[in-house]
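A note from the maintainers: we've had questions about how concatenated examples are separated. There is no special marker in the raw files; a new sequence line simply starts the next protein. For clarity in this README we add a label.
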Amino acid sequence: MSDTLKSVLELFTGRFGDSVTIGATQSGIVSLDVDIENWLEVCRALRDEDDFSYEQLSDLCGIDYLGYGQSEWETDEASFQGFSRGVGGMGPGRFNWADRPEAGQVTQRFGVVAHLLSFKHNKRLRIQCFAPDEGMPIVPSLVEIWNSANWYEREAFDLFGIVFEGHPDLRRILSDYGFTGHPFRKDFPLIGNVAVRYDSQKKRVIYEPVEIEPRVTVPRVLRSDSRYKTDDVDLAVEVSTSSGQTDSGEAD
């Protein structure tokens, strides 16, 4: 660890103590896990205090940790065409929906991540907090601290169902007002809940039951072994045959 990075980490721990936990550092960007009860206090300090001066919130998004660390693609076999059949594990979101598999218990399912930028110190910071209630995930809004959080929080509410307490206009921003569910949640059905189309006779958009069959795209494994290698002799015969030549090299 460089002396500069070490001093930055000591600055955060010295100022916020147990209110934050230092996470991974990637590409020089420090990550802070912030307790939900200290979310607003820490964010105001990060914006206002000279040692930090993170004037801009450049991005904010939600995260669903349902099924985190679980893999449905593990396999030790493949078909003779090279296609993997490792989807038998079926993680959350794969279905027959009525018999869908349930993921294990998640301690903290929904998180909110924000990326901050300090022009004064030319530094970036990643901060994260978790909603304490999985059934109704609620996180304090950052709009009063960084106005740019407005539409980002609306997007996270729309796609993940995370409620931002104190947001001045929390409503859907990508899906329509009659949409059911939150499409970025891991347990949202891959084919959706309803089909939407425009009815030329009724002159309006209508909703219908989904008729398509759910399917999982299985990636092909490209292999390089003796089954797929062509000997030089065989290749020469193929070239000769395709050019219309006899064994003596003369054209027919």
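[label: protein 2]
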Amino acid sequence: MQMKISPRALEWMTTAQTVRVLHRFDTVWNVADQHHRVLALQTVELPMSPFAWQLPYLPTSPTLTLKNGCLHTGTHQYDPQQATVWQPIPHANVETQNLASLRGYNTQYAAPLQQLITAIIGRDKPAIVAATSYLAGRGRGLTPEGDDLLLGVLIALWLRDQSSWATLIAETAAPLTTTLSAAFLRCAAVGEVSEPWHWLLAGDETAAALIRATGDTSGEAAWHGFTTMMQALEVCV
């Protein structure tokens, strides 16, 4: 089977000096290096993420080491140069007006989310920082709900070429949340998103259901942040 690897994962493998396991699941291992950058080692069952390396099988030994640009575990060696590079920045081929639909997620953070969106539309930098700081890390899980809402906002901002605000939000939120969630936010700020978002932006409307089904509430929250931000941006056009 041909492996796939994202540019961030490939860079991680060529520059990391240490490796520590953050989380181990049946289909993905999240690991970090000395700079807290995340690499996701995952099986083919999962769609690619912006920092993923798709493997034919996951390690069986909990001990991981790096040597000569390869990942070693037990008697196995994984060589990133044998993987095909997967590009995490999608090509948007659909009308953006069609994306601000299918809402309906109820969040306890509706008020601060609206404050953030109002601040973005008003180009109010202090208010953007304040609202982002409130949402960052709010909720439970590896990617808290407040971050998932921010993730959706960031994708909408990237799609509408609002990269300066996206960078501000991501860099404000990153130190306030989990290592994994910070990685997703920083990727989204520059348009690097997981595979279902690629399918959606290529015109596959069924991908919305896949996005919303991610995790317990992560996908729903990200979708809500995305569609709410998109609707606000469309109104301002």
